[in-house]
Write a structure and sequence with these properties.
Order of helices and strands of chain A: EEEEEEEEEEE
Largest sheet of chain B: 7 strands, mixed
Helix content of chain A: under 10%
Distance between the termini of chain B: 34 Å
Oligomer: heterodimer
Strand content of chain B: over 45%
Strand content of chain A: over 45%
Shape of chain B: globular
Radius of gyration of chain B: 13 Å
Helix content of chain B: under 10%
Chain lengths: ~110, ~120
């Protein structure tokens, strides 16, 4: 089966940079995605890596290394509103592209 | 604006009741939709893939007769939790994959189901 592991909690201060890691044990996926979820809300898409390397989208960057079965999400210039849960996910299934989510990381941004 | 509409947002009902949750794709036709369940402080667990005009594909361990999925049109999928019990209390979320290659999934706002 597929498994994606993330740290359960991360704490950082406003303005700082934080990296959330994601390690997985699987193969045959299309890409690694990252989603943000505020408490009780819907997950929202942040970033996607189809290929190895770094993808940058504003304050958020994501990295994938298939050879290391590893990826990370980098958040820069942290703001209080970034306090949320972050999930890595792998896309499978050909045309259906179903998502399998990681264990999730709760980020707490402190003043 | 919203890409996916999910209703109701919250349901509280007695044990033994069947509950139907609707998921609508607002911006485009969706031959495939997904249903997830999320327990407090846990990850989203894929329950099933809803396929327009055919049977849903359930993930291992998900009871087909317990969680009935119907995808009768290109914009609507429904999940019915039959004879719900307290252990079925959870946050249920649907999603639709965007059109085109490598498109992200768009999620509904979720339905918080509480069975008394």
């Amino acid at each position: 089966g597929q498994s994606l592991e993330q740290p359960s909690e991360v704490t950082a201060v406003e303005g700082a940079i934080v990296q959330i890691n994601c390690t997985y044990q699987t193969s045959g996926f299309y890409g690694l995605s990252w989603y943000q979820q505020h408490d009780g809300g819907a997950p929202t898409f942040l970033s996607y890596n189809a290929l190895d390397g770094l993808e940058e989208t504003g304050r958020f960057s994501s990295f994938l290394s298939r050879s290391d079965s590893y990826g990370y999400l980098l958040l820069q210039e942290l703001q209080m509103k970034d306090s949320a849960s972050y999930f890595c996910s792998l896309a499978y299934g050909g045309a259906t592209n179903k998502l399998i989510f990681g264990t999730g990381t709760l980020l707490a941004v402190q003043p | 604006g919203a890409v996916v509409s999910q209703h109701p947002s919250r349901v509280i009902c007695k044990s033994g009741t069947s509950v139907k949750i609707e998921c609508r794709s607002l911006d485009f036709q969706a031959t495939t939709m997904f249903w997830y369940r999320q327990f407090p402080k846990q990850s989203l667990m894929l329950m099933a893939t809803s396929n327009e005009g055919s049977k849903a594909t359930y993930e291992q361990g998900v009871e087909k007769d317990k969680f009935l999925i119907n995808h009768a049109s290109l914009t609507l999928s429904t999940l019915t939790v039959t004879s719900a019990h307290p252990e079925d209390s959870s946050f249920y979320i649907c999603s639709v994959r965007g059109q085109g290659g490598n498109q992200p999934q768009h999620f509904g706002d979720g339905t918080r189901l509480s069975i008394l």
